[in-house]
Amino acid sequence: MSITSGTVRLEVAGAVATIVLDRPEAMNALTVPLKTALLDVVQQVHHDPAVRAVVLTGSGRAFCVGQDLREHAALLDAGDPAPLATVREHYNPIVTLLATMPKPVVAAVNGTAAGAGLGLACACDFRIGAQGARWTTAFTGIGLTADSGLSFTLPRLVGAAKAMALLLLAEPFTTDQAFEMGLLTAVVPQERVLPAAQELAARLAAGPTVAYAAVKRCLHVAATSTLEQALAEEDRQQTLAGRSSDHAAAVRSFLDKQVPVFQGR
After folding, report:
1. pLDDT tens across 96-138, in order?
2. Same structural domain, 34 and 61
């Protein structure tokens, strides 16, 4: 199945949904129509029980270069409030859905990831990066602070000191550097980025997605809680996972020395 909005494509194969940012002529810069379409598509796959893993990628030579500054400048000049409202109306809900989605999300970073484009990638659970891609936080270069969740996700991926340097200095870095600092799950040739991400997503989609959702929830809660709160959340999530059909079937398979088949329920 394939659905196209003009700026975002949704392709579903089996239990894997691939979301493609589709403005290759503008390196997938984020306009209001693209952000609106992306929010709609992410909500759709979030709530679709048939989708058990998600891939997010860009078309052409870039993953996403962040906010479309031509549109941004034109709206500022016109006195339109949209540029100042986009964090609340677009970036925050998109990043929240990606980060808390009860199924794994893999970013296939096929090229440049900058600004909010980097933020979208960091909101995913895995990041497969293309050799030779260019990365940058970009925000302070235009007199802005971080958005798209980077103040939360970046220090958790690379550490507080490195995140401070990346955000304040906004210097570009390479894919190899991104991997060395812990930002990436894997680095592959550019032509292998999407296939590698989809292979990983297919593997995850065939796995215990109820347990994956519980793991994501536990990690999300633990990031901003006390040990006591984290332990209480583990208790809640383990109870839910323990009641699943997948858990019962997997235990039986283990005892019978068989490979478990997970149904996502």
Report:
1. 999 999 999 999 999 999 999 999 999 999 999 999 999 999 9
2. yes
